[in-house]
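Practice problem: predict the structure.
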Amino acid sequence: MTNSTDTRKTGKNSSKQQKKENQAQDIRAMGIPDSDDRITAAANDIIGILNVISFGKGVWVKLGLALSLIVVSSASVMVAARILGYLVESLVKDSPSGTTHFAVMFIALETFSVGCQYFGRVTLAGATIEIAYSIRTQLFKKMTELPMHYFDTQPLGRTITRLTNDVEGIESFFNGTLARVLIASINICTVLVAMVVADTEFGPIIVACAIPALLFTVSLRGPVRFWLRTYKKRSAQINARLAEYLNGISVIKIFGLEIWSAKTYKDVADAQLAAALMSTNWNSFIRPMTVLLCSVPTLLVIWLGGTRVLEGAMELGLLVAFVRYSERFVSPVRTLAQEIQNIQEALVSSERVRKMLQEPDEAVFLGPDGHDISNIKGHITFDRVKMFYREDQPVLEEVSFDVKPGMMVGLVGATGSGKTTTVNLVPRLYSFQEGSILIDGKKIESYNRTRLRNAIGYVSQDVVVFTGTMRENLVAAATQTLSDADILAACRDSGLIDILSTLPNGLDSILLENGENLSMGERQLVAFTRMLLKNPGIMILDEATANIDERCEALIQKAVARVMAGRTSFVIAHRLSTIIQCDLILVFQNGRIVEQGTHSELMTKDGYYASLASHQIKKSAQSAADGTNTLFF
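Answer:
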């Protein structure tokens, strides 16, 4: 009996678990934000608005002045409304002097209000521009301080969305929403107080009828915020997918993936569209309902107030003032209804920007920055270094080697064996968990990271060429001012001078984004020359000649031989002809160094390296017969 009961309980628990999993899948399919968004969704709106306003702390004086002028403008309009009532009473009493007096006061107040509104908005616009500039500057500075771990785990589209859409959302809040909401709130309070003060019996009735419109407007901010968060998340995803496809457009075309990419892009776009439609639907419901509810006080003013005037219980001028008040009440409540979406968008953008600004810097992952800025000679020692990207997945295990200054070190092994990870530890792009790395006999943690990286030249297979002139690209990493003569001397050493002579404007030739008007080999020569101008003590070539044509490869091979003299160099290469020149070869397998030595020493051992090299030699012989070129691994 007990076993049967336990079985039923287990079955029920499994059923509940399955039901929860199905619900979670349904929620994800609907585009509902993840747990991180649900946590921030519960945040108090007032605190959220204060967080948004905190971005303007550098221009609080300007903001205060601007908002004060706008508030004074709003108050002037309220006083002008009451003056208008007195003007009507003067007309009824046939008092020309009083009519002129009130008319002049009304025009003066309205003019004063317009002037305050103008200067307030001009000042506010200037403050807004400064705030947006400050946020963008902070975000870009933060981006340069983030560790590589962040960019390895975060989609590119999400980072771009933070720097563009989210900043614009905050900018929009300061540019108009903040002023409009403040004016609307003050107008509503002023109108409600003015109604009660003007007539202690009639005023509270109208105020009571006005409250439902306010409650309705405020109560529906939750769904609007929810779907705006969903829309923002989907926008980041669509940006990430778009960036991915644009970067891989050549692959998409070569493999005929147009239909597949269009379908997957459409799936993400459909999710964004669904969120946008839900957000629009809620706003389309809120605004007309708000107008309907706001019309009730105006209707009661005309109906009940008109009756009281006919009965002699109210002056006609006071009725006109109440009509004016009710009009002034409708407008700000309608404004609040319209601004709900902008407010929630600013709150969402603020949360996302603040979250990025609070991301841990390199110091959290790499430890405190060192202070040693002494010149680096290039004596590098790895002593039983162990590294994890994830706790259960070691990338390097017990890696040890010693490199004397000026040595050329080759790293070989299958893809994913730990070669690139090892060289990435030298400039401290990542942290390691066990062991030690010494440079010139000092722990790597003791060096200032900026000084250490300035002493290292890095050329990878994926070359970054910036939009701009050839000169700007070449001197981008230089640590000192360089003349054209210095640049051309480096171009001769690297072999780029031959390419430079074919460009229409030499060093002033414009290079397109990612160097699209250069071949792969020419881009590598640009990167190699840029490294030479940096004049590093340590050089890292990570498969720098893997995908280039033979003409550029020959130029680079000659340049490598010339400029590596006297410099400690790490070379990850596929070609046996490159590796065979190295003073020391490190053979990696599954995150470990299984062999190390010169080419001749390793061939004598007849181990893993010898088998790889022999296989390469056989394939090279076959390739030579076929007229093709074969890679090492």
